[in-house]
Specification:
Structural class: alpha/beta
CATH class: Alpha Beta
Shape: globular
Bound molecules: zinc ion
CATH architecture: 3-Layer(aba) Sandwich
Strand order of the largest sheet: 1-3-2-4-5-6-7
Number of domains: 1
CATH topology: Cytidine Deaminase, domain 2
Largest sheet: 7 strands, mixed, barrel
Number of strands: 7
Oligomer: single chain
Radius of gyration: 13 Å
Length: 135
């Protein structure tokens, strides 16, 4: 499983992670699925509604807007991204418990610059390769 994403998107997510600290940033990834792989073709930043700083909850209005934008562009919402201000770029217990959509990618970033991709596949969150594309 791999997620291919332009370097510019990765830079944008790291910037959002730093700007949101000490809270978590979050957003949705638009793109195209190719079997168990996916290509990121757009980012849709979302408001984080979580009350606690070490959680994230995508605002439903932003979720719907991302789905509309994806449909209009002939794409799908293939994943989400969020940051772990104090932690590692690894899914937390809450992330694992919150995952539910099959073949959905999770990109986790830290303000320090770490970034890793995961995918929820057959009921389990597993590591995925993050491949940088130039465009
Ligand atoms: Zn998390």
């Amino acid at each position: 499983m791999k997620l291919t994403m332009p370097g510019a998107f990765q830079a944008q997510i790291l910037q959002a992670a730093r700007a949101a600290t000490p809270a978590e940033c979050c957003g949705l990834i638009l793109g195209r699925r190719e079997g168990e792989d996916a290509v990121a073709l757009g980012l849709h930043a979302a408001r984080n509604l979580a009350a606690a700083v070490d959680r994230f909850e995508v605002a439903p209005a932003d979720q719907f807007a991302a789905q509309r934008a994806a449909r209009a562009a002939g794409l799908a919402v293939i994943g989400c991204y969020h940051s772990h201000p104090d932690g590692a770029a690894q899914p937390s217990t809450e992330d694992r418990n919150g995952a539910g959509e099959e073949n959905f990618f999770w990109l986790i970033a830290t303000p320090a610059g770490a970034m890793a991709a995961f995918v929820y596949l057959r009921g389990v969150m597993v590591g995925a390769d993050l491949v940088t594309s130039s465009s």
